[in-house]
Amino acid sequence: MIAMQHCSGKQLQCLFHSNTDTIPPNISLALYRCLCQNIVGTEDRVKTIRLMNAMRDNLSTNKMGIFITSGSFGEGLEMRGSDLDMMMSYKHLEVDEYEKPCFHSSKTYFSMEQDDIKPGFTLLRLKYCDSPYIFKYCEEDNGKLYFSSALHKRKILFESTRGETIHGACIADKKGYFDFANSLHCKTWISPAIQWITRSSHQISNFHRSIRNFPIEEFTLYVKDVEKLVNSTMMFCANGTLTSSSMLDILNIRVSCQQSSQKHLFKYYMSLWFNGQSQCLTLDIAISSKKHKYKQYKSCLSNLLKNVYHDAVFGWLMTASFFYKTKQYSKALHIIMYSISKCTPDKLYYGMTMSDIHYQSLRLQSFQKKSVVYLLKKMFVDKIQFKMKSKLIPDEILMDEWNEGFLFPSTAYAYFLGFLCHYTSIMLDNVRISFNVYDWL
Question: According to the lineage, what is the superkingdom (predicted)?
Fold first, then answer.
């Protein structure tokens, strides 16, 4: 019924009429356009979201576990009211349906027991343990140890400081945006799912065949895809889940990647990763006094310059913040003026509604032939996001009770930072003049 709310009353009457002979021949096209424009999105948009999820999962994977974006969003669908489902599969914990000898002494092994268990559930019996901390998550029954998901979730909540709650089998954030599930990996197909191996992956429904013969408003759907992507709360949340993966691994993946679109996506996520790294480095205004301080300064600046590839303004304003914090106000002002020049009415902002000027810009073939990452870098103006205890945030914004990150509109922050630069530089000039007058006297 959600998909029908934008269709006309006449179409709805026809759609739900008991006699299928009275359904007009173009109802499939109307339904398809309704789904593409208002609910699901086009095939290209679904592929884009799935590819971005795969790239982010790749870069988030570390020595501890493998990250997987699951649920409807993992399939490339952003359904109304749905949250973001994330999974992490521990690498050092393995599950097998049948009891087998251990293969690696540094891993923990569980076996599955499914007798007298509800369908879709299993008991995980501990067979071999490489670390004593595993026993904290196990309960004893008839002399056997079984893994307890309840104990594991309570342990996570006890160690967390962000106010998460238990949501079924998952840990959810306090705002309800994320569902995070820790999971264990079974490397073989279990008996209840053995039929999945031979199922067909090339089935095409009659509905899908029928819509291929209808002309689709390509440009309208393209603009709707761009608008959905920019306003996507799920995409906004998903981009914030990138973890600090090994930089060498990221570079190896990007270099070995064959498709240019995937290389651009890796470049996009590398830019986000460098943003987080640059905000954690300690700054020292005495940049020329010691060699290691100068090296630290150059490292932070290098990371910031690599942070300008995921939107048109964010990375440059973070670089301007760096120069303000190191008292290089002239350089900061030049970058601020450049950033303000990018905040024009034809740019795309999070939460916006497309206007005529955006339709005219996106109608250009030069944009329609480019990847989504290119479009974000050239046209999207993201909000300024400071992480908790960021070293780049101006002291004038800090508060004593500050224990979370800050979020500012880019244009407002650019003018505010420009004001700080002018005000501080004028104050310093007045101090210098006062000292010069005192020396002259």
Answer: Eukaryota
d(CA 325, CA 319) in angstroms, rounded, equals 10
pLDDT at 105 over 90: no
Over residues 39-52, the pLDDT tens digits come to 777 888 888 888 88
Token pair, residue 431, equals 């101090």
Model confidence band, residue 54 (pLDDT cutoffs 50, 70, 90): confident
Residues 9-26 have pLDDT tens digits of 444 344 444 444 555 556
Q: Report in angstroms the alpha-carbon separations of 298 from 97, 135, 214, 322.
A: 53, 46, 57, 11
* CA 51 – CA 55 distance, rounded (Å): 6
- CA 114 – CA 94 distance, rounded (Å): 17
The two three-digit tokens of residue 292, written as one number: 């290691």
- Which one, of 120, 152, 111, lies nearest residue 135 by Cα? 152
H helices of 189-246, in order, are 206-211, 218-230, 233-239
Q: What gap in Å lies between CA 321 and CA 14, rounded to an integer?
A: 59
β-bridge partners, 407: 385
Backbone angles phi, psi at 298, to 5 degrees: -65, -35
Q: List b or e across 400-429, with b for residues whose CB sees 16 or more CB atoms inside 10 angstroms.
A: eeeeeebebbbbebbebbbebbeebeeeee
Residue 315 has pLDDT above 70, yes or no: yes
366/317: higher pLDDT: 317
Neighbouring CB atoms inside 10 A of 270's CB total 22
Contact 213, 118 (CB under 8 A): no
Residue 58, both tokens: 């790749």
CB atoms within 10 A of CB 120: 6
CA distance 96 to 94: 7
- Six token digits for residue 351: 């939460």
The structural domains of the chain, with segments of one domain joined by +, span 1-39, 62-189, 244-440
The C-alpha atoms of residue 284 and residue 119 are separated, in whole angstroms, by: 60
Decide: residue 338, CB within 10 A, 0-12 exposed, 13-18 middle, 19+ buried.
middle
What is the distance between the alpha carbons of residues 71 and 129, in angstroms, rounded to a whole number? Answer: 31
- Distances in Å between the alpha carbon of 405 and those of 244, 279, 384, 390, 419? 17, 11, 10, 8, 22
